[in-house]
Design brief:
alpha+beta, 136 residues, Ribosomal Protein L22, Chain A
């Protein structure tokens, strides 16, 4: 590894130590369906976001709810105290496409239709309101 690459990698690692996040990888739903759920909670206070996710009828909401609880626990672990209500917000959430499994389905007249089974990766960042104002 080159010197410049090593320095930038070290800076990136140091920056991640001050951020509070959780990742969910290889979720077997399409990224489009997951982004609908992610858009519902972007920028919300975490207790309100948990309520929205709990009563959402989307299947992806249960997975994002578990991820949000994990991000809150990560924040509490790094700060060594419990999060108070109204303190934490979902600062960033984004969904990236994961691996796509390609399958074939039999079709009429000897043909085969292609089936794409998509997956995604979700990354969720939490932080306090004062941190959000500092970053912007």
């Amino acid at each position: 590894m080159g010197a410049r690459k090593k320095i930038s990698a070290e800076k990136r690692k140091e920056a991640l130590k001050t951020m509070y996040f959780a990742k969910l990888r290889n979720v077997p739903t399409s990224p489009r369906k997951m982004r609908l759920v992610a858009d519902m909670i972007r920028g919300m206070e975490v207790n309100r976001a948990l309520g929205v996710l709990k009563f959402s009828s989307k299947e992806a909401a249960a997975r994002v709810e578990k991820l949000l609880r994990s991000a809150i626990a990560n924040w509490e672990q790094k700060n060594e105290r419990k999060a108070e209500s109204g303190e934490l917000y979902v600062t960033r959430i984004f969904v990236d496409g994961g691996a796509t499994l390609k399958r074939m389905r039999p079709a009429p007249q000897g043909r085969g239709y292609r089936i794409r089974k998509r997956s995604n990766h979700v990354t969720l960042f939490v932080g306090s309101k004062s941190n959000n104002e500092d970053q912007n």
